[in-house]
Amino acid sequence: MSGHFDEELSSLLPFSVHRCNSELCLPHAMYLLLAALIFNCLFIVCLTAPQDHVSTEEVVSYSRFQLWSITPHNKEGCDFLRKIQRDYDLDVWKESRSGNSTMDLLIPPDFQMELKLRLADAKISYVVTIRDVQTVIDNANSNVTIRDEISKAQGHNMDWNNYHRLNDIYDYLNYLEDSYPQIVKLITIGWSYEGRPLYVVRISSASSPDTNPAIWIDGETHAREWISSALATYIIHQLVEVDGNQGLLSNVDWYIMPMINPDGYEFTHTKNRLWRKSRSRPGKFCRGVDLNRNFGYKWGGLGAGRNPCSETFRGPAAFSEPETAAVSEFIQSKSSKIKVFLSFHSFGQLLLLPWAHSHPAVYPPDYDELLELAKNAASKFVRFKFSVGNTVELLYTASGNSVDWAKSIGIKYTYCVELGNIGIYGFILPPSLILPTCEDFFPALKVFADMAATMTN
Question: Known InterPro entries for this protein (predicted)?
Fold first, then answer.
């Protein structure tokens, strides 16, 4: 045993140690003791090493990062900007679709001087819309401090003057089910990659739930888009806790999932405010899948990244992620009842219609009906003026997205809602704009509910 065993132990030592008769060599007993100590240390390291689903990343600072709004003047300028984005691997906050439409890029401090020179040489103008991204993050990500007596009196910590951590949101959903059991049911449809529950809130005043036509709403597919889950929870609050909105429940059931990506959402609060994807490990070096490229309709096509490090990485297969698999299974079980499908994102002030998988754009046969309903809903917005149209024409290609998939399984009215920006904040919408955004959007729900109520088959 000792000969082969000793050789393997020797290979693990940080210096060469062999049994011999020379005074320069360690005595055999000391050698074995040292080797045993090293093996003990390795054993402890293995036991205490982070598991695959536990994040070990450092906190990301965006100090001195800037957001530039860059305006090309022709197609050549657009192509030049896309090359710049690829060359420097820049985060795109807003895509440029044609000449004279701006592209918003997040510029790290190390590249700023070089890119100023390159843009000047190309005669392309730009405006710095955020001079220090971390400063905006710090101002917008203030801690929620509600006095204990207030939260105890109302039974939860939720409000819409702050962005809340996941525990506050989930506690609020449980509070509603406990307080309003006659209309609220909290359904666990699965578990995230890191083991967090995936909740759908069913709101129904029907004597037999699942008999009315229904509306689906979801938020937080992309982790950094905090306003999407804030709006979804605000809608839940209005439907359940505000008596004046009971008419919205009379002929329609609601399925609302405010948090599709709970792992990513928590990561944006603890490590990286601008994280977009899920937190699974599809590749050796990069984490996360873009859940809005992981649905099964036209999966893997245009606008879906193949590289696991890409912000739009599609995943190794359609529905490879536990989050999208759970959502798709639940929606398919209710697809005969769901008539309207709304997926909240940010930002851009856009109401987007299928299809998103092809350039130039292609349209479903009933596109005009979808467009008419969307325009009626958008007409209710006062503070935020929305553009309405096909995803590819107004934004970009996005194969494997949830809205196209929902349309493909027979849900008639399906929309992606890109919420407000107010021009300068992008994904970092400050808490002071949560309520204005929610209050502006809510009246449009009656347009969708009225349509759904007429669709009994």
Answer: M14A-like_propep (IPR036990), M14A_act_pep (IPR003146), Peptidase_M14 (IPR000834)
Rounded CA gap, 206 and 177, in Å? 16
How many degrees, rounded to 5, is the angle at CA 84 between CA 78 and CA 86?
Answer: 105
Place of tokens 């979808």: 370
**pLDDT, tens only, 142-167:** 544 444 455 656 888 999 999 999 99
Backbone angle region of 125, left / alpha / beta, with phi > 0 → left and psi within -120 to 50 → alpha? beta
pLDDT score recorded for residue 424: 77
Indicate the range of 49-63, 162-176, 302-316, 368-382 predicted with least confidence. 49-63
pLDDT (tens digit, 9 = 90+) per residue, 80-102? 998 999 899 999 988 766 545 78
Sign for the CA dihedral angle at 13, 14, 15, 16 comes to: positive
Known catalytic residues are 418
pLDDT of residue 31: 45
pLDDT at 150: 54
CB atoms within 10 A of CB 385: 9
Three-state secondary structure of 48-105: HCCCCCCCCCCCCCCCCCEEEEEECCCHHHHHHHHHHHHHHCCEEEECCCCCCCCEEE
Q: How many CB atoms lie within 10 A of CB 259?
A: 29
Q: CA angle 121-123-127, nearest 5°?
A: 110
Average pLDDT, the chain: 86
Q: Can you list the positions of beta strands (E) in 152-297?
A: 184-191, 197-203, 214-218, 253-257
**Per-residue pLDDT reduced to its tens digit, 195-234:** 999 999 999 998 887 889 999 999 999 999 999 999 999 9
Let me know: does 239 contact 248? Beta carbons within 8 Å. yes
> Whole-angstrom Cα distance, residue 37 to residue 129?
57
Handedness of CA 244, 246, 252, 256 (dihedral sign): positive
Query: How far is C-alpha 204 from the chain's CA centre?
Result: 27
Which distant-in-sequence residues (6+ apart) come within 8 Å of 378 by Cβ? 351, 386, 388, 444
Give the Cα separation of 297 and 71 in Å (integer): 33
The per-residue pLDDT for 101 is 73
